[in-house]
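ARCHIVE CARD
CATEGORY: sequence design from structure
SOURCE FIELD: tokenized fold
FIELD CONTENT:
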């Protein structure tokens, strides 16, 4: 009897398996650490000398979290091996580590268990596990096909001027980086740190990257619905809201960017009218967590930087390669504000009511992101020789996993670099996912309620 009691007590104290949410968070951390160790190797640096663990960790986090903030120019610092490691981290981080694991399982024709299906569903932002393996296969085939098409277009464009080998390398790298909304580039051989500025007047390059960024930022579930239903009215409310929000944000960003920067000689001012329109469109799209720069972000007007930060904070859509607050979350807040302004308590869209709990979730995420962004701006400005506006730009870029910088990344102090690493990780894995998974997993039920009171609001 005593032995049985001891065994039962030991069984109760046994280590419990990680939940899908925690598994995703831990897996991303492990991938980042593995990438940092690889980039810390002398073979990963073009000079043959190790860059040091901290810069390697910063770069690995930026690549895995598909951000694009860098301490060094990617082509100048990293060898072919280092660039291959970065590309692999971008692909894993963009499509999700479960997609990479599923690809191996599919190739080996192994059976996918219940736990793996649960993690897949969580990684894809699904509400249940029904059809998750089929969705994962569609995601992989679709993603790799789109990246291949983008790589082909870019390779054909670069080939006549730079030769086939360089063109193929650039085509593949930038197609994957754009689709995964990473913003890394390897154009340092022609303009170190210049990102896409050498091709700012090239419609083929910029429009191809725009298409890849938008498709990658829509979300995998939206692709599936568009492919299966093919008519706007047949799509779910969520898919329709994603498409409307994406189009509205791109057009608004395009118009406002052109208005604010049209006469700025350091950005759009020196271009002709069609070049201004092209670069205004590219700026609007890349701010949605892509991170490529066709104009110098540090030379934007003050208003231009402020507006850019708003778009960076909003980001792309849930279940996509993009980060940020997310388009639907932002529009739920807009719809809530509009409803309250008209004296209504419920949020409605496309003849459907949004649950109050989801409105509260949207408000919670927005408040967390905004508070973290402001704190990050103050902290970076206080610990680094950077003005508050540029420091806030850097913090928002990291949280939104955007990767654009006003030129402050190279001037970050060590504490500021560590904060940016944390922000990039939070931005990719999800502030709410981490808080719910680790801090609120065993939340107790409320056992009593206090009497209500009235406050003066507004």
């Amino acid at each position: 009897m005593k032995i049985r009691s001891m065994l039962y007590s030991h069984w109760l104290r046994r280590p419990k398996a990680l939940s899908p949410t925690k598994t995703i968070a831990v897996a991303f951390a492990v991938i980042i650490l593995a990438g940092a160790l690889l980039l810390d190797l002398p073979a990963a640096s073009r000079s043959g000398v190790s860059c040091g663990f901290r810069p390697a960790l910063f770069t690995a986090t930026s690549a895995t979290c598909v951000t694009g903030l860098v301490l060094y120019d990617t082509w100048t610092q990293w060898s072919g091996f280092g660039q291959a490691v970065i590309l692999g981290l971008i692909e894993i981080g963009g499509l999700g580590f479960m997609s990479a694991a599923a690809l191996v399982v599919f190739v080996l024709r192994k059976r996918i268990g219940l736990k793996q299906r649960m993690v897949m569903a969580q990684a894809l932002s699904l509400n249940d596990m029904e059809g998750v393996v089929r969705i994962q296969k569609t995601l992989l085939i679709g993603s790799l096909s789109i990246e291949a098409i983008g790589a082909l277009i870019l390779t054909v464009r670069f080939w006549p001027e730079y030769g086939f080998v360089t063109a193929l390398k650039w085509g593949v790298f930038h197609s994957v980086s754009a689709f995964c909304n990473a913003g890394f580039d390897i154009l340092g051989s022609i303009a170190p740190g210049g990102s896409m500025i050498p091709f700012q007047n090239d419609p083929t390059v910029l429009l191809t990257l725009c298409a890849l960024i938008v498709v990658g930022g829509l979300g995998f579930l939206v692709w599936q619905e568009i492919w299966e239903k093919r008519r706007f009215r047949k799509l779910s409310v969520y898919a329709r809201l994603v498409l409307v929000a994406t189009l509205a944000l791109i057009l608004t960003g395009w118009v406002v960017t052109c208005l604010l920067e049209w006469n700025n000689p350091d950005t759009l001012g020196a271009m002709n009218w069609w070049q201004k329109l092209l670069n205004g469109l590219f700026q609007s799209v890349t701010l949605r967590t892509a991170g490529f720069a066709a104009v110098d972000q540090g030379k934007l007007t003050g208003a231009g930087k402020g507006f850019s930060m708003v778009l960076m904070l909003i980001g792309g859509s849930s279940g996509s390669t993009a980060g940020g607050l997310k388009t639907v979350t932002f529009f739920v807040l807009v719809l809530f504000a509009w409803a309250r302004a008209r004296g209504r308590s419920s949020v409605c869209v496309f003849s459907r009511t949004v649950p109050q709990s989801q409105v509260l979730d949207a408000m919670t995420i927005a408040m967390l992101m905004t508070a973290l962004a402001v704190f990050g701006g103050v902290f970076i400005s206080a610990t680094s020789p950077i003005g508050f506006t540029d420091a806030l730009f850097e913090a928002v870029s990291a949280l939104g996993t955007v990767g654009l910088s006003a030129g402050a990344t190279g001037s970050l102090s060590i504490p500021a670099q560590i904060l940016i690493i944390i922000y990039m990780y939070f931005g990719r894995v999800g502030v709410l996912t981490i808080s719910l998974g680790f801090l609120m997993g065993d939340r107790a039920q409320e056992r009593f309620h206090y009497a209500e009171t009235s406050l003066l609001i507004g």
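CARD ANNOTATION: Residues 18-436 form one domain. The longest strand covers residues 347-349.
SHELF: design records, drawer C
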